[in-house]
């Protein structure tokens, strides 16, 4: 199992979309969240969008491998899907935050943790602002959180710099152990 983490706006979704388009041999875990769905997102593909009550039920039942709260929203990884694919020998890729990566490391020490880093803090700020999905207050919170996350990259097994989506996707696929996939 490989965990992909990094600050908001670093391009995790873009890298994963490219991997999803090019590979069929890896299971990309779909997280559960209580946050509002963005216009381009598809329920069940990008996230499983649920109410806070439903999310809390999943936590109480132990149905999540990891979970965390960020910016007032809850995010978590459904345990059953991950375990099913690992049991079948399918490589599993999780996109989760730093807190979740730490929980996975504690629960599954054999998991490979990969940090997706921006080429620079200035580029990260440009990407966050350019998305146009959040107000200035949320962007400021995400940038402050990003600085904390950048400090945590030393806890990860590998660091991939996202200076090019194609190169970052290639490097991540290589870390997953696949032969060339083009």
TrEMBL record:
UniProt keyword list: ATP-binding, Cytoplasm, Kinase, Nucleotide-binding, Transferase
EC nos: 2.7.4.8
Compartment(s): Cytoplasm
Q: Which residues form the Guanylate kinase-like domain?
A: 1-177
Q: Does the keyword Cytoplasm apply?
A: yes
- Which family is annotated? Belongs to the guanylate kinase family.
UniProt name for this protein: Guanylate kinase
Tell me the function of this protein.
Answer: Essential for recycling GMP and indirectly, cGMP.
Q: Which SMART domains match?
A: GuKc
A Pfam family name for this chain? Guanylate_kin
- Residues the entry annotates as binding ATP: 6-13
The enzyme class is transferase
Which GO terms of the molecular function aspect are on file?
GMP kinase activity
InterPro entries per record: GK/Ca_channel_bsu, Guanylate_kin-like_dom, Guanylate_kinase, Guanylate_kinase_CS, P-loop_NTPase
Q: Which reaction does it catalyse?
A: GMP + ATP = GDP + ADP
Its primary localisation, in coarse terms, equals cytoplasm
């Amino acid at each position: 199992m490989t965990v992909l983490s990094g600050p908001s706006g670093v391009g995790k979704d873009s890298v994963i979309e490219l991997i999803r388009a090019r590979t069929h041999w890896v299971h990309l875990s779909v997280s559960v969240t209580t946050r509002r769905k963005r216009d381009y997102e598809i329920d069940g593909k990008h996230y499983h969008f649920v109410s806070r009550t439903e999310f809390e039920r999943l936590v109480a039942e132990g149905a999540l491998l990891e979970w965390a709260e960020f910016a007032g929203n809850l995010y978590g990884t459904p345990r059953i899907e991950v375990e099913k694919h690992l049991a079948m020998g399918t490589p599993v890729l999780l996109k989760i935050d730093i807190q979740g990566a730490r929980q996975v490391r504690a629960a599954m020490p054999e998991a490979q943790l990969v940090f997706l880093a921006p080429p620079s803090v200035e580029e990260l700020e440009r990407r966050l602002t350019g998305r146009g999905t959040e107000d200035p207050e949320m962007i400021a919170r995400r940038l402050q959180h990003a600085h904390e996350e950048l400090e945590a990259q030393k806890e990860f097994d590998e660091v991939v710099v996202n200076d090019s989506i194609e190169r970052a996707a290639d490097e991540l696929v290589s870390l997953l152990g696949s032969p060339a996939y083009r």
